[in-house]
Amino acid sequence: MKQYKKNTSFLSHKAYYIALFVGFALLITLMVIYSQQMKNKNEAARQEINLDEVGNEAIQKTENTATTEEITTTETTTESTSAATETSANAFSYDGTTKLEWPVKGNILLPFSMDTTVYFETLDQYKCNPGILIEAKEGEGVGAVTKCKVKEITESDEFGKQVILELGGDYTVILGQLKDVKVKKGDTLSEGDIIGYVNEPTSYYTLEGSHVYMEMLKENNPVNPVKYLKE
């Protein structure tokens, strides 16, 4: 009987320790699980913070880029506006009322005449004349009639080398019978600038003598240059 009680007491103590061990192990396991969960939560929180920081940084960069682009666009627009204003200010716009300078000083050998014919001595014939022939000495300098731009330089059998000047406002002046032209297409000239020199007359005008041929166009139609030249 005593042996049975002894065995029962031993088993009770053993079960107690086993239960205590199992409880302790369970507690450790729960603590580990809780610790891991807390670690995961902390890691998720840190990642969320990092994402927020990255997002804020990206937004800041986007805002800075947008601001920079806006400033650049504004500066470009301002520069373009300034350039356009400057170009407009420098544009030629002859009004048709301001008197022009004579390309050379001299008598008119043949007048402008588009309504009736005039006599061309060398050709020995009557015909209309879309310009005027201004008497000049060979080698004399020929000046620009006003501020203008060289539109073209051409040459023909009748008028020799010609410089076409764009005055603006749909007005154009053609000066012919030239040599040693000093300008080129696209040049900007001021009144009186030498564009070339008087050449000997072509075979069409040998009897008329050396001169400068001047033709003036308004909207591509010939007009009398004398009406626009200074008296």
Structural commentary:
This protein has one helix spanning 2-90; strands at residues 108-110, 113-120, 125-129, 131-135, 141-143, 148-156, 160-168, 171-179, 188-189, 194-198, 211-218, 221-223. The protein starts with a helix and ends in an 8-residue tail after the last strand. Mean pLDDT is 82; it is low at 80-89. The protein has 1 helix and 12 strands; from the N terminus they run αββββββββββββ. It is of the alpha+beta class and 231 residues long.
Report the oligomer: single chain
Major sheet size, sense and barrel closure: 10 strands, antiparallel
H/I helix tally: 1
Beta-strand content: 25-35%
How many beta-strand elements? 12
Instruction: Encode the helix/strand succession as letters.
Output: HEEEEEEEEEEEE
What overall form do the CA principal axes indicate? Answer: rod-shaped
* Overall mean confidence score, pLDDT: 82
Low-confidence stretches: 80-89
Tell me the radius of gyration: 50 Å
Please identify the structural class as seen in this structure: alpha+beta
Concise overview:
With 231 residues, the protein is α+β, with helices and mostly antiparallel strands. The chain contains 1 helix and 12 strands.
Short key terms for the protein model shown above:
231 residues; 10-stranded antiparallel sheet; 39% helix; alpha+beta; 1 helix; two-stranded antiparallel ribbon
